[in-house]
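Record format v2
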Amino acid sequence: MESAVKDDIPQYSLCVQCGRCSSGCPVAFESEDTPRKIIRFLQWGWLKEACESPFLWLCATCQVCKVRCPRGVKIPEIMLALRRTAQQKGWVMAGEKLLFYRTFMEMVKKKGRISELHLGLAAALGKMPSHPIDEALLFLKLLKRGKIR
Ligand code: SF4
Ligand code: SF4
């Protein structure tokens, strides 16, 4: 890994892959990746893969992982450093995922919270659903059960 980038991403080499960070992370369930997996990418020297993970943009920098980590790895700082690197190098995700996360972040910036209804509609309109009837039925089912607000 390039030394300038390595210096900016603190302590990932201390990680022993115990997974305590991921099991306490409140947003890990939303992504295929986890804090542990991102740290693993770095240990393998896979900086680009780490920077392209949507998980970076989900991280709420809540500090739970840092408190739980037995090795004192500063995971929220690593996530922020990776965001900077991703933007500097142009290693950002593309397509539907990018649309979803951009919409997500814009809502947080504007209102400080997420409207699941607006986020779902923005994502569906942006990607032109491949199974519009199925997705509309699922949407109505979730709405009826109070799962979307
Ligand atoms: S700081 Fe980020 S990675 Fe760590 S627990 Fe919070 S949301 Fe998860
Ligand atoms: S809690 Fe710390 S040591 Fe364990 S997997 Fe996460 S970063 Fe690595």
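The chain has a mean pLDDT of 82.
The two ends are 43 Å apart (CA to CA).
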